[in-house]
Specification:
A 6-stranded parallel beta sheet has the order 3-2-1-12-13-7, with helices on both faces. It folds into 3 domains: 283 residues, HUPs (Rossmann fold, 3-Layer(aba) Sandwich), CATH 3.40.50.620; 149 residues, Isoleucyl-tRNA Synthetase, Domain 1, CATH 1.10.730; 89 residues, Nucleic acid-binding proteins (OB fold (Dihydrolipoamide Acetyltransferase, E2P)). The chain starts with 5 loop residues before the first strand and ends in a 14-residue tail after the last strand. By secondary structure, it is an alpha/beta fold. About 2% of the residues have low confidence. The chain is built from 20 helices and 25 strands. The structure holds 5'-O-[(L-methionyl)-sulphamoyl]adenosine (MSP).
Length: 631
């Protein structure tokens, strides 16, 4: 039978126009998961593709004055290259619903279900949402509009084939109840159960008012409903009816990754089709949240789209992938802003990761002639290796739960811990004390090794950076397997090669509507240097950080300011875990009038930068003695 294949799919996209950052999001997440499983040594089938039939596409083609196939061919070609090619989407198969292999499967399924009485011919009366290509009965409409997208619907009456969904309603409820992981996140599962319990109507699965679709076998006036056609792609690509050996290894699919608005199609219609065919159901339907622009969903029909290629041109491939993978907490919606992308790149990649690598290689050069020294026995040599082991486990668990952003958050923590290790160990001070030679060598080894481990951990997510890191570390072999992320494997004696910064800092672009030169006549709200000097800004170190019971935005910090420890209550809990802050340097406003917050006297304030959704505490870029004035 061969080894089982880990089979992951994205939805197949409508080629009704170029795709946007929202569509790229789904595909990049699936790509990271596929790459991760391949690195874990599993055979993977990662399928994406295009959903090319239906009235909407036919109308767009007509408007463009070309045949539907000519129309989609051009768009599909652009989706494959440059879009997925430049995002390095590592799909194994790209399925188009216009391919003969797919026609065969759809028609054969249709015939089988009709022969066994699950499909019958009747008359359809109801409401049709053109943009969503979905049919609704009167009772399901919300204020007379489409319940999914809120747009107006049209009344229709026509002869149609129907799929007896109703027959399978109870079996479906039971299946979802007895398979808690089938639909995720849990909120979507509950929605689907409520939908099923409200009662399933038979589904109209053929159309006669247009011809751009797969003809119903034996009744060519009808074309197959586009969702019945599209969902079947998951079987076609798995080798159903064409490659029994492949099919035995790939089916059931492990994950169908879909946007939350199409969970209903995937977790009710699709499984019922499979039940009727006597096939096992996919292991998991994961409904992820939307990429929003402001507070509305980014979508072609709303016209508020951002082109992923323009972002790659401006910020680079890895910055865009990292942002998409990290910024939208999986399952929830996330807002796209260019500022947040710049901030994420500058903080996590340029500053934390890039600096870790450049400081590590620079110190190996300066203190050991560029050669990575061996690790000696030392009581503290487990500091970083323990953290690596912990992060590895967190990443593995997160990826198994499809929480890609949680995996990257854990990796970012490791980077911060490693940077803090440099501050704590002060290799430059060790280098001045000959009796500390072994300790210095340990520190240098640990730094090289943690950078190597990071290059492995980041391989499923980023494309160029892991290779570039390895090159600078003097390692030429590409990563072969995820188990290489175990601490302790650095090839001793390797020569590091210092190189360009891994991620150059992005300077913020001037806002598009900013005026070029300030108006000389108008007096802006300047402050004088005397005003500024009223502020007593000082460097401090966080000694302790604790949560404040009952306040989910506050942390209680004990900060040493060079003279004494003071308590500062800060509204940063949503962005920092207490552990993240302990030992970190901060800049505080030392002469702010104390206030009582939640019964705690707060004596000052931390400086932090923020844009919507992200906040970062301000700190000196290298260690300073506590009490240093900031001016
Ligand atoms: N063709 C159907 C899917 C058929 S699958 C058998 C379809 N296509 S689509 O092009 O409209 O959308 C494809 C995917 O892109 C969906 O999962 C959808 O949720 C996702 N996204 C579209 N806009 C999105 C955002 N703004 N944010 C995140 N994902 C978004 O539906």
């Amino acid at each position: 039978m061969g080894t089982p294949v880990w089979y992951i799919t994205t939805p197949i996209y409508y080629p009704s126009g170029d795709l946007h950052v929202g569509n790229a999001y789904t595909t990049v997440v699936a790509d990271a998961l596929a790459r991760y499983h391949r690195l874990q040594g599993q055979p993977v089938l990662f399928v994406t593709g295009t959903d090319e039939h239906g009235q909407k596409i036919a109308k767009s083609a007509e408007a463009a004055g070309v045949s539907p196939l000519q129309y989609v061919n051009e768009i599909v070609a652009r989706i494959q290259d440059p879009l997925w090619a430049r995002l390095h989407i590592s799909y194994d198969d790209f399925i188009r619903t216009t391919e003969p292999r797919h026609y065969r499967v759809v028609q054969s399924i249709f015939s089988q279900l009709r022969d066994q009485g699950d499909i019958y011919k009747g008359v359809y009366e109801g409401w049709y949402c053109l943009p969503d290509e979905s049919f609704w009965t009167e009772s399901k409409l919300v204020d007379g509009n489409c319940p999914d997208c809120g747009r107006p619907v049209e009344k229709v009456q026509q002869e149609s084939y129907f799929f007896r969904m109703n027959r399978y309603q109870d079996a479906m409820i039971e299946y979802i109840e007895s398979h808690p992981d089938f639909i995720q996140p849990v909120s979507r599962r509950n929605e689907m159960l409520a939908f099923l319990r409200a009662g399933l109507e038979d589904l109209s699965i053929s159309r006669t008012e247009f011809t751009w679709g797969i003809p119903v076998p034996g009744d060519p006036d009808h074309v197959v409903y586009v969702w019945f056609d599209a969902l079947t792609n998951y079987l076609t690509a798995a080798g159903y009816l064409s490659d029994p050996e492949l099919f035995a290894r790939t089916w059931p699919a492990d994950v169908h990754l879909v946007g939350k608005e199409i969970v209903r199609f995937h977790s009710i219609i699709w499984p019922i089709m499979l039940m009727a065919l006597g096939l096992p159901l996919p292991r998991k339907i994961f409904g992820h949240g939307w990429v929003l622009l402001g507070d509305t969903k980014m979508s072609k029909s709303r016209g508020n789209v951002v082109d992923p290629l323009a972002l790659i041109d401006r910020y680079g491939l890895d910055a865009v992938r990292y942002y998409l993978l990290k910024e939208v907490p999986f399952g929830a919606d996330g807002s796209y802003t260019e500022d947040a992308l710049i901030l994420r790149t500058n903080v996590d990649l340029a500053n934390d990761l890039g600096n870790l690598l450049s400081r590590s290689t620079a110190m190996i050069e300066r203190f050991n002639g560029g050669v990575v020294p061996p690790l000696h026995e030392a009581s503290d040599s487990h500091l970083l290796s323990n953290e690596v082991a912990r992060v590895y486990q967190v990443v593995e668990d997160a990826m198994n739960r499809l929480e890609v952003s949680a995996a990257l958050t854990a990796i970012a923590t490791l980077v911060r811990v490693a940077n803090k290790y440099i501050e704590d160990q002060q290799p430059w001070a060790l280098a001045r004390q000959p009796e500390q030679r072994e300790q210095l060598e340990n520190v240098l080894y640990n730094l090289a090794e943690v950078c190597r481990v990071l290059s492995v951990l980041l391989t499923p997510f980023l494309i160029d950076a892991p290779q570039a890191m390895r090159h600078q570390l003097g390692i030429d072999e590409p990563v072969q397997g995820y188990q290489e992320a175990v601490f302790g494997g650095f090839p001793v004696g390797t020569h590091v090669r210092r190189g360009d910064p891994l991620f150059p800092r992005i300077e913020s672009l001037a806002p598009a509507n900013a005026s070029a030169s300030p108006d000389a006549e108008a007096e802006p709200n300047f402050i004088t240097i005397e005003d500024f000097q009223k502020l007593d800004l000082r460097v401090g170190t966080v000694k302790r950080a604790e949560v404040v019971e009952g306040a989910d935005r506050l942390l209680k910090l004990t900060v040493f300011d060079g003279e004494r420890e003071r308590t500062i209550v800060s509204g940063i809990r949503q962005y920092y875990q207490p552990d993240d802050l302990e030992g970190q340097q901060v800049v505080l406003v030392a002469n702010l009038k104390p206030v009582m917050l939640r019964g705690i006297r707060s004596e000052g304030m931390l400086l932090a930068g923020s844009v919507s959704g992200t906040l970062s505490v301000v700190a000196p870029s290298t260690h300073l003695p506590e009490g240093a004035r900031v001016k």
